[in-house]
Amino acid sequence: MAGRVAIVTGAGSGIGRVVALGLARAGYNLALAGRRVAPLEAVASEARGCGVAAEAIATDVAEAASVADLFARVAARFGRLDLLFNNAGVFTPGAAIDAVTLDDWRRSVDVNLTGAFLCTQGAFRMMKAQVPRGGRIINNGSIAAQAPRPHSAPYAATKHAITGLTKATSLDGRPHDIACGQIDIGNAETEMTAGIAAGARQADGSVRPEPVMEARHVADAVVYMAGLPLSANVQFMTVVATTMPYLGRG
Fold first, then answer.
1. Between the N and C ends of the chain, which has fewer C-beta atoms within 10 Å?
2. What is the mean pLDDT of residues 136-143?
């Protein structure tokens, strides 16, 4: 994997940060995308300690012009793209479906779904045109793509839609050596999921602490998916804390 180029969105914190550093250790040069430059620069500095090139690029994935600038800068800096990890996402405040505000709904769709779509388009166009052609796109789907939590309609709807985007991208990518897969992650321990260990709402309405796993296991899984030859693909992978509520949410 040495010398390959990857874009990680939402790379300044959480899963994005852990995966970016896992890819750096595997030899990937990195374009780190996110809205806040300071955390991106911190991750880039740590990645460079692994002996790879890393560039922090301020990006709002919900804005087409910002995404276009991201891919233009990657093309100018690295000349090609081998991997996109579509990871940027937002959690809007939990609410029963009749109490979800239109602003929260639109924010979820804009970032979680439209953002992934815009980045997929940018990656697809680069990978299709470059020589040698092809590459891989990995979408962060979440357990919510399979089994929603209560009071999470915007997030669950967008993550279910990511599964459709993954399948459609896989089909459209076949003639161009572009592979697309999805990783669904459950209860990885990051600053963004700290509340789960303290207590999360269950399907029966109760609030109970849930087990978590180290986020490095997610990074290991993504690096494995990324390292396959383009003739092979992990279409869907689910990585969870072993005893978390998931199967039947129990």
1. C
2. 96
Helix axes 64-78, 115-129, angle to 10 degrees: 30
Q: What DSSP letter does each residue of 184-203 carry, written as one string?
A: EEE-EESGGGHHHHH-EE-T
**CATH class in words for 5-249:** alpha beta
Domain ranges across the chain: 5-249
Instruction: Region of 53 please: left (phi>0), alpha (psi -120 to 50) or beta.
Output: beta
Give the other-Cβ count within 10 Å of 215's Cβ. 22
**Sequence-distant (≥ 6) Cβ neighbours of residue 186 within 8 angstroms:** 142, 143, 238, 239, 240, 241, 244, 246
User: Which structure tokens are listed for 134?
Assistant: 């092809």
Report the chain's mean pLDDT, rounded to a whole number. 93
Tell me the β-bridge partners of 207. 201
- Exposure string of 188-206, with b = 16+ CB inside 10 Å and e = fewer, is bbbebbeebeeebeeeeee
- What number is the average pLDDT over the span 60-68? 98
Structure confidence by residue, pLDDT tens digits, 147-204: 888 899 999 999 999 999 999 999 999 999 999 999 999 888 887 666 676 777 777 7
**Residues designated as active site:** 155
| CA-based nearest residue to 138, from 1, 14, 25, 236 | 236
15 touches 40 (CB < 8 A): no
Taking the whole predicted model, whether its pTM rises above 0.90 is answered as yes
